[in-house]
Amino acid sequence: MGQTLREFIKETSCSQRKDQNIQSLDLELMACSLFDIDRSKLFSSYILLDQKRKAQFLSMIQRRNSGEPLAYILGEKDFWNVELEINDQVLVPRPETETLIEDILLSFNQHRLSVLDLGTGSGAISLALKKEREEWNIFSSDFSEKALGIAKTNSLKNDLHIFLACSNWLNAFRPNSFDLIISNPPYIKDDDLRLESDGLSHEPRSALISGPLGIEDLYTISDNAKDFLKKRGWLYLEHAPQQAEELKFSLTDLGYINITQLIDLNGDPRAIKALSV
Ligand SMILES: C[S@@+](CC[C@H](N)C(=O)[O-])C[C@H]1O[C@@H](n2cnc3c(N)ncnc32)[C@H](O)[C@@H]1O
């Protein structure tokens, strides 16, 4: 008789070396995806692993052990309240980015806000907000056509309507148009050694790197966004914790007021919001 799925997961968990990426939870999620079952069914049912499925499972394990993010292997990732289809043309949405969503939802309850999400990638920020605030007009832009294709797929998958635009940052938009401009832009230095680490090394370079300093795209967006925000519009930016002070000074210099840092679940300053007057 063949091996059961439960036996295979147990055996594989035990045989993984400490330096390998895979964790028991990853194995369980891969098995659920492969057999299209809920995690609750995984150990309660008697599922036999035939040769074909075993080969598929082993290939997933090999990809994970080579550092590929789990979201690319499963082809999906949950973000806030939406399920997103993900592939290697887009950044894997991070829990840190939910810091912005949380603050925006707590701060804005008005109907009919006009919102721009710059560098939308998979559409994570736009779709999470649209699901919570149906009446907002949400514009989502990226300069990557491939990323916009995934954002479109995700808007259809979640049955949420957003306006998609291919644009180099604000080039495609009209001044004085938005109540909120939000961006999680690339913010890593081009020679940062972490780019070679597991996970990051599989993600698109153009979603991660922003020139020799790392802060270039944050400056470009802060500088230009003032003209595209309506009077008393808010800018929200995600950034690396070590960029917090520099960005705060630069926003002050640019004339923004009410500059406030937002702290993520790890206790790090991860985002900043500023009012344009
Ligand atoms: C860090 S990813 C963020 C993706 C998504 N918003 C999220 O939070 O998961 C940055 C995104 O900005 C896009 N991007 C980079 N440079 C850009 C530019 N000059 N104009 C427009 N989008 C750009 C990348 O293609 C990528 O999708």
Q: Which short descriptors sum up this protein?
A:
single chain; 277 residues; alpha/beta; Rossmann fold; 2 domains; seven-stranded mixed sheet; two-stranded antiparallel sheet; elongated; binds S-adenosylmethionine
Explain what this protein looks like in three dimensions.
By secondary structure, the chain is of the alpha/beta class. It folds into 2 domains: about 5-65; about 90-275, Vaccinia Virus protein VP39 (Rossmann fold, 3-Layer(aba) Sandwich), CATH 3.40.50.150. The chain is built from 11 helices and 9 strands. It has helices spanning about 5-15, 25-35, 40, 50-65, 70-75, 100-105, 125-130, 145-155, 205-210, 215-230, 245-255, and strands spanning about 75-80, 80-85, 115-120, 135-140, 165, 180-185, 230-240, 255-265, 270-275. The strands form 2 sheets. A 7-stranded mixed β-sheet has the order 5-4-3-6-7-9-8, sandwiched between helices. Strands 1-2 form a two-stranded antiparallel sheet. The termini are far apart. Bound molecules: S-adenosylmethionine. S-adenosylmethionine binds near residues 90 and 206.
